[in-house]
Every structure is written in structure tokens, then in C-alpha cells.
Design a protein that fits this description.
Belongs to the cytochrome c oxidase subunit 6A family. It is found in: Mitochondrion inner membrane. It contains three helices and no strands. By secondary structure, the chain is mainly α.
């Protein structure tokens, strides 16, 4: 039982040395597989560098321009609303704000996403 440990250690050491020698021997030979693998690694490195540059130098300005465009469109939208007549003077058609029963929250007439700046409902004023 005592002799088994040194034998196992020697076997592990021998296999590790043999593996290292085989790897050195096969790594030194240039075959089609090794050349293709090296080419793939170089291509991956170049592609990674390209996308890193795109992410750093292209995306932030694009996001900034898109945000500026959205801000301008938002302001134009509300400027258009300021030229419209007040909510109380607008015509309410029968297909707008149909209520078959009251909502279980609030005053029962306003939806969960009611916005007083945009939404208006006058029960008495329908054409």
C-alpha cells in the first residue's frame, strides 16, 4: 500500500512530461489545421477590435442624435396641441369614452391612465 503512492505520482509525472513533449512537437509543425486556426484567431481579434471601436465611437453620437430628434418631435407635438381649441370646446363623438359601467377606482369615470392634459369626458356633451 505504501508503494502505490510513489508509483501513482511517478505515473502522473511521466504522463505530464509526455504530454508536454507531444504538445511542443505538434505545436512546432505547421499544418493546414494550425494555419486555419491561427487565421481564425487573428480574424476574431480584428473583428473584436472593430466592434469595440464601433461601440465606443459610433453608438454614443447616434444615441445623442436620436435623443435630440425625439426631444424636437416631442416639443413640436405639444406646440401643435397648444394651437388646438381647449378640451372643453372640442366635439365629443358617441364612439369616444364609451362607458358601460363605472371603473372600480377613482371617480369611476376616469381610466387608470387618465391624463387631464389630454383626456376629457363630459357625460352631458355628446352629439
Amino acid at each position: 500500500m505504501i508503494a502505490q503512492r510513489p508509483i501513482a505520482r511517478a505515473a502522473l509525472r511521466f504522463t505530464a512530461q509526455a504530454r508536454a513533449q507531444a504538445q511542443r512537437r505538434f505545436a512546432s509543425t505547421e499544418n493546414a489545421f494550425a494555419a486555419e486556426r491561427r487565421h481564425v484567431k487573428e480574424h476574431a481579434k480584428a473583428t473584436t477590435e472593430l466592434w469595440r471601436k464601433i461601440s465606443i465611437y459610433t453608438v454614443p453620437p447616434a444615441l445623442l442624435l436620436a435623443g435630440l430628434n425625439a426631444y424636437n418631435l416631442w416639443n413640436e407635438h405639444w406646440e401643435h396641441w397648444s394651437h388646438m381649441p381647449p378640451l372643453e370646446e372640442r366635439v365629443e363623438y358617441p364612439y369616444q369614452n364609451i362607458r358601460t359601467k363605472n371603473f372600480p377606482f377613482g371617480n369611476g369615470d376616469e381610466t387608470a391612465f387618465w391624463n387631464s392634459d389630454v383626456n376629457y369626458h363630459n357625460k352631458d356633451k355628446t352629439t
